Structure formats: structure tokens, C-alpha cells
Amino acid sequence: MRLEIKDLRVHYGKIEAIKGVSVVVNEGEIVTLIGANGAGKTTILKTISGLRPVSSGSISFDGQDLNKIQAHERVDLGISQVPEGRGIFAGMTVLENLEMGKFNRKDRKNEMDEDLDRIYTLFPRLKERTSQAGGTLSGGEQQMLAMGRALMARPKVLLLDEPSMGLAPQMIANIFRIITEINKQGVTILLVEQNAQQALQRAHRAYILETGNVTKEAKASDLLNDPAVREAYLGTGAH
Amino acid sequence: MNFSVVTTQFWSLVLQGLALGLIYSLVALGYTMVYGVLRLINFANSEIFMLGTFAVLWVEIELLGHPVAAKPLGGFELVYTLVIALVGSMIACAVLAVIVELVAYRRLRARGASRLASLISAIGVSIFLMETMRMFTESRPRTAPRLLEKWSFGEIAGANFRIDTMLAIVAPIIIFVILDQFVNRSRLGKAIRAVSLSEENAKLMGININRVISLTFLIGGLTTGAAAFLYTTVYENTVFNVGFNMGIAAFTAAVLGGIGNIRGAFYGGLALGMMEQFASAVLGSQWKAVTVFVVLVLILLFKPNGLFGEAVQQTRT
Fold first, then answer.
1. By CB atoms within 10 Å of each CB, which of B27, B73, B112, B127 scores lowest?
2. H-type alpha helices, chain B
3. Chain-chain contact of B205 with A101 (C-beta, under 8 angstroms)
4. Is B294 left (phi over 0), alpha (psi -120 to 50) or beta?
5. Considering CB atoms only, which of B204, B208, B317 is closest to A133?
6. Angle B209-235/B45-58 helices, nearest 10 degrees?
7. Of A70, A91, A100, the CB nearest to B205
8. Distance of CA B202 to the CA centre of its chain
9. Which residues of chain A lie closer than 8 angstroms to B201, CB-CB?
């Protein structure tokens, strides 16, 4: 498995949001994209999932050019996204939300119980809430549900968009612990975060994104100790 | 004004209101299902209804060979004739609705056109269908053969339980129960709810949006087709512009119940049918259409989200 973004450009109308970004995610890695609001992090994830059209450049997955593949088919290839704001189906129960994650799997009936077990082990809280409407969960629980739902599709790579957003510190630590756990179970992770401290501690490699450009690429541990990065992303007051 | 009818004919008016209202409900579903996933009013739905009424006539007269002057049928022949006419109308309307989506909306959507463009396209399709039928029928109303003899189960409190009235009440209720179960329990039904909640998130689940959109047009067509059959069976005539009033009334019913909401369409239709029957009994039948418009204006002014609020997906909780 290898996700490779080459010279990607994406536009919103006439505004260029991504200005020639190249990113590589190798099998088994946790790679993080960090950057301020509006740097283009979410746009990159949406483009990988096929929600935004590519203006130029390419995205390949397992050597396959994703440009020709529709958004809903990319899930079948093994790309799942946990969207910004979680994207829980509010009127559906927790169980229904999880089932939606498997919508297109050919073997969904046989896999269902096994995968539900796996997800309830990762997120015991969800098991207590199976028949509760998704919209009534707390922010942290919704994040868990969104991650569990994405895992139902048995992804090869999981795209996580700001999983820590709006959560209490304890819940943030919990979520990041689970991200590492998921990675250890063999799922490659591309993590977009404003919480650079946590992201850099968990990730193997990192890219720093500024207004649509990658300005730095390095091992995550190196960036944690980089004075310029500390100043811009890890200083007091910065998230 | 004649208020005494409200007391003397109360139950009779209720029964008539139910029958008319539930026919509205079925057509309202055509608007509401599509709005739920596309946030678009499919104005062509009224003309799909109109073509459905002609499909019923065609099946009964041409396909099954019962001329307008034919005697009422009985027994098994009656049942299968009605069933074929019902199914024929449903299929015709469903196919037409899916084609309308492919031709008039999908291409615009693929190019990222604005909602306004789709709306204009909808009105265009609507005019096209109506004018085509005007030419074919030379603007003449058509009468349906009375295949179902209108016998009565009996009278209770002045309400006449006539067979066609009962059919127009029972059939929509059955259809609504089936649809409600389908949307809440089946996999495809859940896909419809997912798309109506968020198209983007539905895509992330691997849902093929275009297929779900076709499915909602198909379902809207099926219910509109059923309405066309019931309408033709109860009122026994149709004309090329029959869809106009029906469309306004059904759209009002959908908005009244909260457009995008399936149960809202049901109750909205019922409420509107009742109001129309009572208003025309009290004020005179020339006020029928006025009632509908007054309701539409009032609801848009004071409760634009309708009585039950928007959203197909909230039928559950």
C-alpha cells in the first residue's frame, strides 16, 4: 500500500487552495499534515476521497490513478475518511451509523459481527449506546463513532480530519491513544491536525502546510524539536 | 355561507376529505422524496401524475379492451383489471420520473449548475409534458370507464362508505406503511436517509449518490402513479392539465407537513384534503382552489418548515 500525491493543485472557483503539494504515505505509517486554519489540510483529504475535483497533478493509491475513480468507489479500494466535524448521521442510531460504514462491502453480512466486535473493543463506549441516536452523543463519542464507522469498511488507509477538534484534553489523549492502537493493528493513517503537539508525538513523519504549500517535511520527532516549528505550532497559546 | 353542513354532513365530509387528502399525500411524496435528497422541487411531478391518469385510461381501454361505455366488471376480472391498471400507472410514472431526472437534472448537476437552473429545467419539462399531452388529446377531457361499480358498504352517521372512497383511503395507508418501513429499515432506504442528511458523508460511506437519486425519483414516481390510478378510479375523468391543480395541492400538502419529511407528506395531505372539503362545503365549491392557495401562503408566511419540519432522515427518532 502506498498513497502518493504528486504536484496536486485544487481550486475553489478561481481561488487556488492547494498549490502543488506532494505527499507520500507508506504502508504502516502514521503521517500527519499540520498547519494553521485555511492552510488546505481538509481540502487535501477531501481530494483524496474524491469529494473535490483535482485541477492538476495526480493522486495514486497502490499504483492506481485515483483521478478516474469516483468518490464512492474509493472506499472499496481501501480509503476511508473520518471527516471534519465527524459527519455522524444524526437521525440514525449508533448501530445504523456503523452499518453505513460497510454500505458497499460485498461480504458485509459475514463481516458484520466480527467488525462490530472489533470496534466495540476499541470503543467500549459505543457498545453501551448502540440504539441511541447518533446526534445525541457527546463530541468525543461522536468522534469515536465516526472512527468506528470508517473502520467498518476495513480500510487500508484511514484519513483523519481534526479528530481532536472541540474535545476535552482527556478525550483528546484517549482518541490519540486509539489512533496509535488502530495503526498497530495494521491500518495506515494520514492525520490532519491543528493539535501539533499530539499529532507529532504520535506520527512517524510529518508535513507542514502553509497556505496551500508544503513548507517542511521531516520525521515527526525531529519537528517536535525544531525551534521554528516549536515557535509556530507548539508555542503557548497555539493549538 | 352555510355552516349547518358542518354538523349535518360532518362524517361524510371527513370521509371525502380523507380520500382526497390521501391522494394528495401520495403525490406529495413525489415532491418530498426528491426534495429530501436533492433540495430541489421537482415541478414535473404534477405532469407525471397527469400522464399517470392517461396511462390508467390506456391500460383499461386499449390494453384490456374495456370501452368507456363498458359495464362494470365483477369478481376476479375486476380485481385483475384494477391491479393491472394500478401497476401499469405506477410503472409508467416511475419510469417517466427516472427519465426526467436523467434528462433534465443529472446533466445539470454533473456540471455543477445552480439550483435555479434545475428549477427552470423542472418547469420546462413540466410545460413540455403538458403541451405534448394537449396535442395528443386535442385539449379534450377524457372519461374513464366505470369498471368498479360504486356500491356502498353502508352508511354510518350519514357517511357513505362507498367502495371507491374506501379504496382511496386504504391503499395510500398501505403504501405509506410500506414506504416508512423501507426507508427506516432497508439498506437502500438508509442510503436515502444518509444522502438526505449529507451528500458528502454518504459518498464517504461508499454510497453511489446518482443511484440513490434515481431510486428516490423511482419511488416518487411509484406513489404518484398510485395516486393517478386512485384519482381516475374515484373521479372517472382526466384532462391534459389535470396535473396543475393536483400539483399545487400536493406541493402545498408537502410544504404543510414539512417538505422532505415522509410522514409530513402523509399528514399534510390529510389536513389539506379535510380543509378543502370543509371549506368547499361551507363556502361553496368554487372556493376549493382558493383554500389550497390560502393554506400555502399562510404556511410559507408563518411556518415555512411545515408542521413536522424538514428531513426524511428524522422519520425515526
1. B112
2. 4-8, 10-38, 45-58, 75-100, 107-110, 115-137, 163-185, 187-197, 199-204, 209-235, 242-257, 262-283, 288-302
3. yes
4. alpha
5. B317
6. 50
7. A100
8. 28
9. 83, 87, 89
In chain A (239 residues long), the average pLDDT of successive 10-residue segments reads 95 93 96 92 96 95 93 95 94 95 89 95 95 94 97 96 94 95 96 92 95 93 88 65
Residue B313: its chain A contacts at CB < 8 A?
89-92
CATH of A2-234, one of 2.30.42.10, 3.30.70.100, 3.40.50.300, 3.40.640.10: 3.40.50.300
Distance separating alpha carbons of residues B92 and B20, to the nearest angstrom: 22
| ipTM of the complex in this document | 0.92
CA-nearest residue to A158 within chain B is B204
Question: B265 and B25 in contact (C-beta within 8 Å)?
Answer: yes
With CA atoms as reference, the chain A residue closest to B201 would be: A87
CB within 8 Å: A103 and B203: no
Residue B143 is assigned to a structural domain of this protein:
no
| Residue of A87, A91, A103 with shortest CB distance to B206 | A103
A152 CB neighbours in chain B (<8 A) are: none
The torsion region of residue B56 among left (phi > 0), alpha (psi -120 to 50) and beta comes to: alpha
